[in-house]
Every structure is written in structure tokens, then in C-alpha cells.
Amino acid sequence: MTTAEAPALSRDEAFARIRLLRSPNVGPVSYAQLLARFGTAAAALEALPDLVGRTGRPYQPALPARVEAELAAVRRAGARYLFHDSPDYPALLGQAEGAPPILIARGEGALVHRPAVAMVGARNASAAAVRIARDFAAALADAGYAVVSGLARGIDGAVHQGALAATVAGGGGTIGVIASGIDVTYPPEHAALQEEVATRGLLLTEQPPGTEPLARHFPARNRIIAGIAAGTVVVEATPNSGSLITARLAGEMGREVMGVPGSPLDSRSRGCNQLIRDGAVLVQSAEDVIELLSGFDGTPRAPLREPSAPFLLAEPADRPADVTALLTTAPVAVDELVRQSGESAAAVQLALLELELAGSLVRHAGGRVSRSA
To answer: How far apart are the C-alpha atoms of 197 and 125, rounded to whole Å?
Structure first.
């Protein structure tokens, strides 16, 4: 996705884009491929029933009334839409595989144009880690960075508080990314903090209004946090925490991954310490973060994993490849399906698109796919 020289979006096409994304089984990759194949969301919506019908399943796109209700809810919340080709869409996020085609935003839109750093960590954080997170965030915001986090308990909350304190003194700002609708607060005790982020910083979500924060929404939110920023800092994390998921996603996107070391006697530090052992850069001050990111040229100092390029539809195919027999519930790379099928990349992608829209395919990170269970 790119924001370069994007044409002005008509109201009808904006409506159609929202409707397309809210239609059954349309995700970020299939959305991008449908736009590439049909040119506009309106044309894609018209083609969807026939496209999915080739799999033998009926298909009904999202009803216009549902989009009308969503638009009204977004207006009531004082929010707005950011489309993937809008100049107000976060540029780095737009470069990430599987980036949300549409975001809903409240607050200071200029923050997306500032250099950004993400900070995440444990929900049940120690007092020392909370202070570190708050101090780091304040110093980074004071240096002009947009400090990104997820408004969760513990480290996330301290990050936003620190950055907001620096904003009062005329410094930078903070971006909160939530796993719920723009009009839903989670956790409840962060209601005042979320409102402050939305009015003095920037609040972002890809979920429609009224959406409750379900477990499956948090990994999706984490990819937005990692994707917006040039680097991610982890402050305390257990080995299986969502913070490490965010860090791994940042590494896969080719961004800097940093960790604040902690005591080996504290289980809350083990995940972060292991992250450093695996290649994350050890940082002990905000100045370390600034030094690392000020020279960031798109090549991280110590990537945790080689970033994978998105595998998108290049040329429209007239017919889908027959790849059903090659798919199992175990994820496989799309380029491997191309090799094994002997078909063109476009034909394989068309087959995968039809299967996904029919609910028979699951997409995974790194350009891999599997059959739905």
C-alpha cells in the first residue's frame, strides 16, 4: 500500500471501501488484492458474489445499512476514517504486510508524521519498571517522538502518562492503539487516560465502533503498534507475553527491537532478557533509543528474523489454480504453492482469494496460508 499521489476519494468509493472491508472473510490481504484486481471497491463488491460462487458457496457482502450505522457511530464518537492511501495514514504502517486498510482515529492527526517509537511491557509490572517506562516515554516525547503503546494496564499506561506529561511541557505526543471500537474503553480503569490520549494525543483502532476487545483482537492490535514505529522497546515481559509478540512482529517487519534488561530473579524480566539474548538491542536510557533510531535507515542493527515481503497479486489471472489438494491445516508459504502447483503466481493468488472469501483459508504472518480447520 502506498500514499504517494493518491487520488481524492469520493464519498461513494469511501462508503464502498468500508463496506468491502466489513464483508465476510475480507481481510487486509484479500482487500488489497480485490482493489488491485477490480480497481475500485465498488467494482469489487459487485464481483464478489460471482467470485465466491465459483467455490460453490453463496456470498452476501456487508449490507449498506450496516455501514450507515457504523458511519453514524463514528461521527458520534468524534472520530474519522484513515484510508490506506490517505496522506494521514501512518507511512511506516502502510509498508507493513497485512496493514489495516482502514483505521478509525480520534485526536491529533499530525502525530502520524512524527518519528515514532513503540513501548510495551508487562501488565503486572514492577514499580521500578513502571518508573522506567514513564521516564523513557517522557524523554522520547520531549525529543519529538510519537510514543506508541496499547493502553493496557502496567507498562502501557505508564508510557502514555509519561508522554502526555512531556506534551504539557511542549514536547512530543503519544499514540494509543486499542483492540476495541473507538467508543469502547478497556480496561475500564483507563477511561480517563484513554480520553486524554484521544484529545491530547491520537487514538487509533481498526475495529468498528461498539466492538468489545476480544482475545483475537489483541495480536492484530499488536501488529499496528509494531508497524507504526521505527523501533519497539520492551520493558519487562514474561516469556509468553503479548509484548514479545509485538517485538517479534517488529523484527519481522524489519524494525529495530530493543529491550531494557531486568533482574534474572524476577520472572517478569525473563522474556525481555531472552529477547536481548535472541538479538534485540540492549538499551538502558532514552538516549540509547534516540541514538539507535536517529540513524535508522530501514536496516535494523540486529534483526530477530529476516523480514518477509508481502506476496501480492501482480497480474490478474483469468482462472484460479487448483491448489486445494496442496493445502493442509499446517501453514505453507505462498511461493511454495506456486512451485508445487506449477501454476502462475496470479492464478495461485486468485485461488487463495476465492478460498479465503469462502471461509476455507487462513492467512498467517510471513506470507503463509493454511486450510481452515
So the answer is: 21
Q: Tell me the per-residue pLDDT of 23-57, one tens digit each, with 9 for 90 and over.
A: 999 999 999 999 999 999 999 999 999 989 887 88
Per-domain residue ranges for the chain? 11-104, 107-294, 324-371
CATH code, 107-294: 3.40.50.450
Which residue, chain included where needed, has cell 458520534?
76
Residues 6+ apart with CB under 8 A from 321: 337, 341, 343, 344, 347, 348, 350, 351
pLDDT tens digit sequence for 78-128: 999 999 999 999 999 999 988 999 999 999 999 999 999 999 999 999 999
Strand order in the sheet with 146-149: 80-83, 102-107, 202-205, 173-177, 146-149, 116-121, 231-235, 256-260, 281-282
Task: Write down the architecture of domain 324-371 according to CATH.
Answer: Orthogonal Bundle (1.10)
**What single letter denotes the amino acid at residue 313?**
L
Residue 7 to residue 20: CA distance in whole angstroms: 19
